[in-house]
Structures are given as structure tokens and as C-alpha cells.
Amino acid sequence: xxxxxxxxxxxxxxxxxxxxxxxxxxxxxxxxxxxxxxxxxxxxxxxxxxxxxxxxxxxxxxxxxxxxxxxxxxxxxxxxxxxxxxxxxxxxxxxxxxxxxxxxxxxxxxxxxxxxxxxxxxxxxxxxxxxxxxxxxxxxxxxxxxxxxxxxxxxxxxxxxxxxxxxxxxxxxxxxxxxxxxxxxxxxxxxxxxxxxxxxxxxxxxxxxxxxxxxxxxxxxxxxxxxxxxxxxxxxxxxxxxxxxxxxxxxxxxxxxxxxxxxxxxxxxxxxxxxxxxxxxxx
Amino acid sequence: xxxxxxxxxxxxxxxxxxxxxxxxxxxxxxxxxxxxxxxxxxxxxxxxxxxxxxxxxxxxxxxxxxxxxxxxxxxxxxxxxxxxxxxxxxxxxxxxxxxxxxxxxxxxxxxxxxxxxxxxxxxxxxxxxxxxxxxxxxxxxxxxxxxxxxxxxxxxxxxxxxxxxxxxxxxxxxxxxxxxxxxxxxxxxxxxxxxxxxxxxxxxxxxxxxxxxxxxxxxxxxxxxxxxxx
Lengths: 283, 230
Fold this sequence. Notes:
The structure holds two protein chains of two kinds. Chain A is α/β, with parallel strands linked by helices. Helices cover 38% and strands 20% of the residues of chain A. Chain A is globular. Chain B has two domains: 8-114 and 211-229, no CATH class; 128-197. Chain B has helices spanning 8-15, 23-38, 44-60, 65-86, 90-111, 116-125, 130-159, 166-197, 215-229. The chains are: A alpha/beta, B mainly alpha.
């Protein structure tokens, strides 16, 4: 399959295996456009992390092809993939290498061989944007979970990747930090970044994503708009996913008042939308 | 904010008031003092060095004397006991103790006031082989990751009566060690992937802000040297 214009990242016939026997990923075909907000859902062990590690160039011994901006990725240009696709790991501690926040954020830039003045400029600016400037000389082991997460994210976006992958970012965040994270996402979207999040949180995926990809046993079983995915009982059951809360509430209310569920056009995705919709409902 | 005191020396190093002094300067100062002490014959130089360093380590670094003694007591006790074990006449023993303690206090000028990362970065500038630099950075980070895991496992063990008597404690301890190894191996794979994801290319380095040497520091060093020569 040749590369298709319009996609910044394209994956064709990807198969991946750790031990050359069992395929962890089978026949993955995926095209990603600039600015998309994609949520990847799937049970544990479905292959989400493996897919991510293929997408950002850490795993390079796949069968199949990856195209970045229409250029095929090989061993020679693997670094452009790593630079353009950032990956924020689930555990901040698995990712933080530096001994101070400043060190940590500069790590990627030092690896890219940028001149020191540029490193300094970008690092300081990222720290200020993420509200971490006052922490710049603090060591990571004296930070709280939410702060560490912010540092891990800062370290990735300092490299200015076009696409950012988040692996279950809110799994270990408290509500305050979750909110902080959603603000960071909004900021990244404003900058035109393409964001892909792997999560179990169907409520969040329903609220945030413009496109949902469902992975099951290493294969993509669904790739569509959120409403289409979440109203398909078959997909939900097969991938072991729960229906988003607001969708369930919407269906219950619509059914009670004998309304037509066909389009789900105005189905609310958040509490504010729900309030607006419910208050404007005519029975 | 999360500050459970991992290790005192590390904590003092990050919070020292002289942390912002140029690391190279501190190391030169410290090294000069150590050489001076070791090669001296009289009684005066070690005592003078000990007091001078003590002044810097406590007053200038804003460390309380109590905390300073807490940080130095293990090596000091070790020195005293070791020197007594060496034997010989009392003058010789005192001489050895004095030299060792004052050289150690000179070393503390660096270790109590400089975070490990900065020491490693300076060693890197001195062209210490890359493999040592990497090992130091990674070992340092790992100490804290592992100590957190140990903390969690110990609590889990205590909650399930894993330390109620000596025999059970030994078993729990050994299981914890085994577990720690497995966790480290798993974690190291993720760690390496994370480094590769940020274009790690075989040489581990970070950006550090430069620190100027100010007049006070130069003055201090000169004062020390002047009295040394006298």
C-alpha cells in the first residue's frame, strides 16, 4: 500500500511480535491526519503499548511499513520518527532520567544535538509554560505524582513533536491532576498538535476524542466516531468496554419520553452539555 | 508537596545555601585541602582545615551543627575506631584521626552542598569515561526508584505479619530482594525504551545552567591558602 497524501502518519500492514512466534500486533492499518484527537481503547494486553512503541520508532523490527509525512521510515531515518512522535509513558518514574527538573526536560534536546543556547531557550520556555519554572532545580524524587507527570510531559513536548502519544495518562492521577492534564491537552490542541491517548476511561474518551480506535488481541476491530463505537453493543462486549455514563443517561431519558434515538446528534458529553440539553428538553 | 526524607546527605545537598557555588570551584578547593592535610606533618594544618571547612559547611551552607554532626557521625566513628585498631602510640593515633577527620570534612564541602547530578556533570567535563558517567547517573536515579519500591513492599509485608519474628522477617526480606530484582529488570526495559523514545544515542548528557564564581568564593579560597602557608 503506497502512502496516501493528507496523512502525517500512516501505518500499513503492520505485524509485530516479540518472540517471532506469536503476533502481538496483526495487520494494523491506520492513517492519522494532523490535529486529530484519537482515543485508543482496548483491554489490557490488547497491544496498545506495543502499537505506540512502533509508532514512535522505539521498536523498529516490524513487518509492515510506516510513513511519516509520506516518507517511508527505515533504520536510517528512524530518528525523525522518534523526534516527531513523542511518547509519554504511563509511569512518570519509568521515564524520568534526569536528576533535576531542568536536567530532565533538557534530555531530549541534548540528544538531538541542538546548540546550547537553543536548549536553554526551549527548556526555560517549556518550564514556564507548564508552571514548572520554580521547580527547575528540584530533584524528581521530591515531587508529587502530578508534578512528576507534568515533568514527564514537559520533557516530551520540549522536543516539539507533531504527534504526542499518551499511555493511560490519567491512570494514577488524582482529580486535581486530572484536571490539570486536561488543560494541558487543550493547550496542545490549540498549538495544532495531533494527540493519541490510550485509555480505559470510556467517559473521558467519549468526551474528548474525535475518533476512537478499538484494539482487541492485536487487531483493530473498530475505527470510527465515538458515538458509533459506543452505541454498538457488539463492539463494547467484544472489547470489554463500558458504555459512557452520559450516553447511558441520554438513552434512558430519551426512551422514557419515547423519543427517537437515531442520530444522537445532540447527545451530551459532559455535565455542562447535559445541563443545557436536559433543561432545553421538551417532552 | 512530597518530601519524605529519603537520605539526609542528598536532602542537605539539594537544600544547601552554597548549592549555587560553582561545582568546579568547590571541588578544587576541597581537593587542595585534602592534599594539604594528607601531606602535612604538623598538628596545625588539619585542625585549621577542619575548623575552616566546618565553618563553611555549617554557617555558610546554613546547616545546623546538629545536622552536620548527624551527617558526619558515621564516618567519624569509623575513623576513630579504625585508628584505635591500628595501634601504635597515642600521638600517632591522634594524628591519624585528626588527618582523616579533617580530610573528610573537606570532602563534605562538596558532598553536602552539591547534588549528585552536578558532581557527575562536572566529572563528565573532566573527561571521565562515558560509561562511568552513565552508570553514575542511572544508579543515582535508581536508588530512589528502588527505595520507594522497598518502602511499599515493606509496608505490604508488615501489614501481613511478615516481620513478626526473626525467622519470618528473614524470609520476607529475601522475598523482597528477589522481587526487587525482577522489578528492576522490568523497569529497566521501560526505562531504556523511554530513553530511546527521546532519541538517546549512546551518550548520556544533560544541560546544566552555568554557575559563576563570585568574589566571595575566591576570597575565601585565598584566605584559606594564606593561612595555610604561614
